[in-house]
Amino acid sequence: MTISHHTSRETGQASPLYIFVVASLLFLALAFFAVGQAGATRNGAQSAADAAALAAAREQRDSFDLTIDDLGDLLDGALIPTLDGCGASHHYAGQNKANVAECRPLDDGRWGSRVSVTSQKPVGDTILPGTDNLTAEATATAIVVPRCSFDPADDDSAPSPGSLDCEGDVMDLDPTDLPDMSDLFDVRLAED
Fold first, then answer.
1. Residues 31, 33, 38, 43, CA torsion sign
2. 44-75 CB burial, b ≥16 within 10 A, e <16
3. Order of strands, edge to edge, in the sheet holding 112-119?
4. Eight-class DSSP state of 169
5. Please, which residues have CB within 8 angstroms of residue 142's CB and are 6 or more apart in sequence?
6. What are phi and psi of 36, to 5 degrees?
7. Are the CB atoms for 142 and 30 separated by under 8 Å?
8. 74: Cβ–Cβ under 8 A, 6 or more apart, which residues?
9. What burial class does residue 23 get, using C-beta atoms within 10 Å of its C-beta: 0-12 exposed, 13-18 middle, 19+ buried?
10. Maximum average pLDDT range among 19-28, 93-102, 147-156, 177-186
């Protein structure tokens, strides 16, 4: 009985293919990691912009000096205060590891603020060139919206100048003890 050994010319040809596939998969994994890292940096910047815009609009709301004469116009949207609330935006952006690039009151008929921020930390060193110093930018808008409606009294000699309807809770106004601005107005993010 004779045993014959056939040698194949294909012996060892799979190794370079496996090395190529593993190297390609490793490169793709690193590229996905870089994209994920950039996305995380962008999400952090957006969170900072949201917090800064909300803080600026809340500061605008809370610093408004409410009088009984302004209450009806303020709740109806006829009076739009142009207060600057940007002091608080810097603090909240910093707490979220970002710097305020721009903060300004809205000038489009709404009461609120628009804040743009830049992340303090760059995306970092990745396999993608140019990301080591690249920072994320984000913008957010927060508005002050009424929570109540004002119904003026029919008679000027009435003890109350009118009533407030705050989400179904109706109360007569006492001109010497006006509600807090936080009871009358909400602050929320706006789409734009």
1. positive
2. bbbbbbbbbbbbbbbbbbbebeeeeeebbebb
3. 98-105, 112-119, 137-146, 185-190
4. E
5. 50, 53, 54, 56, 57, 58, 112, 113, 115, 187, 188, 189, 190
6. -65, -40
7. no
8. 64, 66, 81, 146
9. exposed
10. 93-102
pLDDT in tens, 10-66: 556 667 778 888 888 887 777 676 667 767 778 888 999 999 999 999 999 999 888
The encoded tokens of residue 134 equal 């690249």
- The per-residue pLDDT of the chain, averaged, comes to 82
Count the neighbouring beta carbons within 10 Å of the beta carbon of residue 106.
20
The neighbour count for residue 93, using CB atoms within 10 Å, is: 30
Go through the chain and tell me how many residues it has: 192
Reported as type and span, the H/E element at residue 62 is: helix 14-63
DSSP 76: H
Task: Give the pLDDT score at 81.
Answer: 85
- 3-state SS assignment for residue 149: strand
pLDDT at 6: 57
Cβ–Cβ under 8 Å, residues 43 and 121: no
Task: Look up the pTM and report it.
Answer: 0.75
pLDDT of 54: 96
